[in-house]
Design a protein that fits this description.
This protein is α+β, with helices and mostly antiparallel strands. The chain has six helices and four strands, in the order E-H-E-H-H-H-E-H-H-E. A four-stranded antiparallel beta sheet has the order 2-3-1-4, with helices on both faces. The protein starts with a strand and ends with a strand.
Length: 153
């Protein structure tokens, strides 16, 4: 795995629609993570007892997601963003890809759906998801899509 694309969606209906679109685009289910109601409850529990730092140690999909973010990004603020989103009842979808080109393809697909607090991205310019050239990183971040890992060379 060279890249991870992560998006926060408002609810499970939107998250599942995005996952279905990723599957239609050929991304395998075993490379896609979608948070669950159980994940949200676990985050709320650990937050309530003040032990959020233990989330990466969980031996389930949620723990694996946190470990993979730490491995790719190594910025504690990033995991905090996802913890707050889950605590607030939102859903996370991530896709592991083997190439920058596939990461940009996934990002473009995932932007077709409303992300947390951002709105519709149908009006986003396609050059943001150019598979040949690195994007303007703030533009991608502003879209609500985070691409972690290696960029195009």
């Amino acid at each position: 795995m060279q890249n991870k694309v992560v998006v926060i969606y408002r609810n499970d209906e939107v998250a599942r629609a995005a996952v279905n679109e990723l599957l239609e685009d050929g991304f395998p289910l075993n490379r896609i993570y979608i948070s669950s109601d159980d994940d949200i409850e676990q985050v709320r529990y650990y937050d309530r007892i003040g032990e959020n730092h233990l989330l990466p140690r969980l031996e389930n999909d949620l723990g694996h997601f946190y470990r993979s973010i730490e491995d790719m990004d190594n910025v504690p603020e990033t995991t905090g963003l996802y913890t707050r989103a889950l605590r607030d009842g939102h859903f996370i979808v991530s896709v592991d890809t083997d190439s920058y080109r596939d990461a940009m393809k996934a990002a473009k697909t995932m932007c077709r759906f409303e992300t947390l607090g951002i709105g519709s991205f149908s009006s986003r310019m396609d050059h943001l998801f150019d598979t040949e050239h690195p994007p303007h990183v703030p533009a991608i971040s502003e879209s609500g899509v985070f691409v972690l890992g290696q960029s195009a060379e």
